[in-house]
Amino acid sequence: AHDVKTVGRLGGGDRDGKMSEIKKKIQSILPGGDWNPLYDTSHLPPESSDVVIVGGGVLGLSVAYWLKKLEKPRGAIRVLVVERDHTYSRASTVLSVGGIRQQFSVPENVQLSLFSIDFLRNINEYLAVADDPPLDIQFNPSGYLLLASEKGAAIMENNVKVQRQEGAKVCLMSPEQLRNKFPWINTEGVALASYGMEHEGWFDPWCLLQGLRRKVQSMGVLFCRGEVTRFMSSSNLMKTASGEEVNLKRIHEVHVKIDQSLEYQPVECAIVINAAGAWSGQVAELAGIGKGPPGTLQGTKLPVELRKRYVYLWHCPQGPGLETPFVIDPSGTYFRREGLGHNYLGGCSPTEEEEPDPGNLEVDHDFFQDRVWPPLAQRVPAFETLKVRSAWAGYYDYNTFDQNGVVGPHPLVINMYFATGFSGHGLQQAPAVGRAVAEMVLEGHFQTINLSSFLFSRFYSGEKVQEHNII
Ligand SMILES: Cc1cc2nc3c(=O)[nH]c(=O)nc-3n(C[C@H](O)[C@H](O)[C@H](O)COP(=O)(O)OP(=O)(O)OC[C@H]3O[C@@H](n4cnc5c(N)ncnc54)[C@H](O)[C@@H]3O)c2cc1C
C-alpha cells in the first residue's frame, strides 16, 4: 500500500517517454537543427481557472471531485489542482494507515465518517470511469476496539450515546465480556470497552487517491506539477462589529513555480482552496493570514503544523488470530493485524514533550522499544515475543488548537477556503469534507452536514471542537 515505486502508474513517465519518441521521429524527418517542434506545455497551468486547489492529496482531490459533481450546469467551472510532488513521497495521504471509524465524540465527526464509509463502500457509484476497470480500495471491515480506564469510562459511555444517536452501531463491553470475546487481551486496568459493530475498518489510501485522480481527470479537472509560492490580492480596509480595523483581501492571482524550473506562471482565479495538508499553515501565511497584531482577527494564524508520526510493522508468531480488531489502549497505543499470517501494525502518538523533529521522515526505533512496546506487551502478553520488521514515518496535518478539521472560507481573505487540519483522521473524512467545501463554494452555506463549528473563526473566538477520541 505504501510502495512509492508504483507511482509510475500516474503515467507521467510513460507519457514523457512517448513524447520524446514522437519528437525524435519528427526531428528525423524535418530539416534543421535544434528546433523543438513539440515543446510540451502540458505541465504548465492555464492562464486562468475559476478554482485553484493547492495540494493534490486526498482532501484536495475530494474537493475537486465534489465541485465537478455538484456544479450546475455541468462543465460550468474550471478547476485546477496544483501539486508540487507527483510522487506524493511526503504526503500524509499515502503514509497514513487508512483506518476509518465511527467512534468519535462530536456529532459532526460521526456524521462525516458515516457519510465517508458509505462513499468508500460504494466507491464505484462515485468514482467509476467509463471503460476503466472498477476500483478496489481493499476495504477490510473490522471494528475498532477502544479501551477505557476507570477515569475514562464515563466519557466513553457518553461518547457511545452520541455515536448511537447519530446512527452508528457501537456496543459497550464490560471487562468480563471483553475477556470472553477476545481472550488474548489482558483486561487489567480496563473498566469499559467500546466496539464498532459495522462501518469500521481500513482500506488502501493509495488506491483511493488514484481512484479520485482518475475520476476528476475524466471530469475535466486540470493538474499542474508545481508549487504555489505567492498570492496576489486586492484589499479593502474595513471595521468589524467590535471596532477592529481589518484588511479584507481577495486573491486574484496565484503564482505557481514550475517543477524543476526557475520559471513561475501566474494563474488568475476566483477561488483558492487551501488543501496543502501539513503545509497548509505555510500556505495560509503566504496569503497574509495571521499577519497582524496578536489577539486580533487579523493576527490569528491557521494553527496547522507538521507533526511526525511513526508506524511500525511487526511479526509475532503467537499473536492473536484472525478476529483481531483495531485496538486502542488508554495509554494511546494502537495496533491491528495486517493481512495474512501474524503481522501487525501499530504505533502511538508522542506527548507534547516528546514531539520528534519534523525536519525529515527518519524513524526512531528507540521510540518503539521505549514507548510503544511496553504498553503493547502489557495489553497483549503474546506481544512479548514480537519482532519489528519495518517502519515508516509520516506527517500529520496537525491542528495545534483542537486537532480537528478546518473547513470553509477565511473571514478576511474571503476567497480562500480551507480543507485541512484533520490531524489523524483526515483520510477517512475526506469524502464528506470535499462535499462540504464544495457546498460552501457553490451555495455559500453547508447543505448536508453543518460544519459551522469547524470554521476558521473558532481560532479567534477560542471555541474548541471538544473531540475526546483523537488518536
Ligand atoms: C502515520 C499516519 C497515520 C494516519 N492514519 C490515518 C488513519 O488511519 N485514518 C485517517 O483518516 N487519517 C489518518 N492519517 C491522517 C491523514 O493521512 C491526513 O489527515 C490526510 O491524508 C490529509 O490529507 P491532505 O490531502 O490534506 O494532505 P496530503 O496528503 O499531505 O496532501 C497535501 C499535498 O499538498 C502538497 N503541497 C503542500 N504545499 C504545497 C504548495 N505550496 N504548492 C503545491 N502543493 C503543495 C503536498 O505536496 C501534498 O501532496 C494518518 C496520517 C499519518 C501521517
UniProtKB/TrEMBL annotation:
Write the record's keywords in alphabetical order, separated by commas.
Answer: Electron transport, FAD, Flavoprotein, Membrane, Mitochondrion, Mitochondrion inner membrane, Oxidoreductase, Respiratory chain, Transmembrane, Transmembrane helix, Transport
An example GO biological process term is:
mitochondrial respiratory chain complex I assembly
Where does this chain mainly localize? mitochondrion
Per UniProt, subcellular location reads as:
Mitochondrion inner membrane
Give residue ranges for domain FAD dependent oxidoreductase: 50-440
| Secretion signal, residue range per the UniProt entry | none
- Pfam families named in the record: DAO (PF01266)
Instruction: Report one GO cellular component.
Output: mitochondrial inner membrane
Topological relation to the membrane, as annotated:
Single-pass membrane protein
From the UniProt record, which GO molecular function terms apply? oxidoreductase activity
> Which cofactor is recorded for it?
FAD
Say which domain of life the source belongs to. Answer: Eukaryota
PANTHER family on file? FAD-DEPENDENT OXIDOREDUCTASE DOMAIN-CONTAINING PROTEIN 1, SARCOSINE DEHYDROGENASE-RELATED
Q: What does this protein do?
A: Required for the assembly of the mitochondrial membrane respiratory chain NADH dehydrogenase (Complex I). Involved in mid-late stages of complex I assembly.
Record protein name field: FAD-dependent oxidoreductase domain-containing protein 1
